[in-house]
Amino acid sequence: MTAETAQLSKSQLAFRVVHDRIVDGTYPPGQRLVLDAIGTELGMSVVPVREAIRRLEAEGLVTFERNVGARVAEIDEHEYWDTMETLSYVEGAAAHVAAPYVTAAAVARARELNAQLRGMLDDLDPVAFTRTNELLHRTLTDPCPNAHLRDLVDRGWRRLARLRASTFSFVPARAAESVDEHDRILDLVEAGADALEIELAVRAHRLATPNAYLRRAPQDGAAHRQEHR
Amino acid sequence: MTAETAQLSKSQLAFRVVHDRIVDGTYPPGQRLVLDAIGTELGMSVVPVREAIRRLEAEGLVTFERNVGARVAEIDEHEYWDTMETLSYVEGAAAHVAAPYVTAAAVARARELNAQLRGMLDDLDPVAFTRTNELLHRTLTDPCPNAHLRDLVDRGWRRLARLRASTFSFVPARAAESVDEHDRILDLVEAGADALEIELAVRAHRLATPNAYLRRAPQDGAAHRQEHR
DNA sequence: CATGCGGGCATCGTATACGATCCGTCGCGG
DNA sequence: CCGCGACGGATCGTATACGATGCCCGCATG
């Protein structure tokens, strides 16, 4: 393990550490990220930290202001919605392209994962549920031969990372619906349905979660959408 | 102007310079980018250059190998196809979301731009044509209220930047078809067509260009797609 | 007591310096 | 003549250092 981390450059190490801390909530939104302090803590100079922070900025996890510093990006409702909406399109696209390449074995694995999810419904552990959920989703997009598109899916997941843990906490009811939708999507894939049909199913599946969340707010999804920015 | 550039950090300056040089072909694909040399030329140290290169890496314009260095990313057929395909989905998505927000004035402006394009068909200047073409496309995606999605569209355009100049050189016939397709898309928008319908039209419009290019190759688009990676 | 100004502190931005790594080349031995 | 290993140059990775910038707090003044 040490040998493994050794061939990781320090800036990559810093990236991982800070990324993980943002994701797991150690660094809450709005937290200032002082380069020097982080560097000292990780036993390195500011230079690698700086590079790590800029990469995190490119991924939207931190905001950066010249001569002022970096802080963990705030997660307002807008950003949550925007990220989910974007991922719904991108993930759908990846599923579309991947559809012809999804093997029967992959579908079988996805079914198995979904069975696990169903088993977890009784007493819901949002974190574990979300992790397995991601594995299932990736089963459908990993076969996508378009590396660029897969990369966008990855970025979307990473952006959501620090929200995901709480997503199913917000709307527990979604978990059950979600499992059923997974099965319907897998039915489509198995039946060799039109790729566009699969795409739209995946898209709708993802959008259902933020919509369910917004349904609990005063205004419904559409109204929210209108006022939004 | 000097005042303007003055408040640009050196790393941002380096980013622009190198970016532009890659786009305009001064740095051809495969060209090595030596940090020290660039820094010296721009009158700065390697540190800002390094940061600029990493940003370019994040955008896919350069590849970076640890302890070896950076070079301008090669543009193989795969990457061209992947980028175009990805942009087709992302741009379609942005158009979908933007549809309700596209004003009559915006459509009018798009019509005007398309008229300009039509006028340019006689003797085709690929660079000018492509620039106006981008303006038209942006008319349809800029009203998209999802900033994240708009950002993905931007990234896609930037990735294509160094290809765009030559796109219509490759397949001059596409220019004429393209103008007609623009009008049909604008018809849909004007008629208040279903957003999904608009999305699919935009998607098909973009995919038509690489397909037209591939049609000139031995294998057709579908066959190419199959073998691809 | 409120408000504007100035100084000091925290932090960033960049330069310079040095060790680490890789690649090509030269020389030696088979 | 060919292969293999050691040396050297080129370039990257990071540390340290210092100037630049913005922010906060206290003081003076109306």
UniProtKB/TrEMBL annotation, chains A, B:
Q: Which UniProt keywords apply?
A: DNA-binding, Transcription, Transcription regulation
InterPro entries per UniProt:
GntR_C (IPR011711), TF_FadR/GntR_C (IPR008920), Tscrpt_reg_HTH_GntR (IPR000524), WH-like_DNA-bd_sf (IPR036388), WH_DNA-bd_sf (IPR036390)
Q: Which SUPFAM superfamilies match?
A: GntR ligand-binding domain-like (SSF48008), Winged helix' DNA-binding domain (SSF46785)
- CDD domains on file: WHTH_GntR
| Entry annotated with the keyword Transcription | yes
What PROSITE patterns does the database record attribute to this sequence? Answer: HTH_GNTR (PS50949)
Q: Does the keyword Chaperone apply?
A: no
UniProt cross-references to SMART domains, sorted A to Z: FCD, HTH_GNTR
In this chain the HTH gntR-type domain maps to 8-75
Q: What Gene3D superfamilies does this protein map onto?
A: GntR ligand-binding domain-like, Winged helix-like DNA-binding domain superfamily/Winged helix DNA-binding domain
Can you tell me which residues the record assigns to a coiled coil? none
Query: PANTHER family this protein is in?
Result: GLUCONATE OPERON TRANSCRIPTIONAL REPRESSOR, TRANSCRIPTIONAL REGULATOR, GNTR FAMILY
This one is known as: GntR family transcriptional regulator
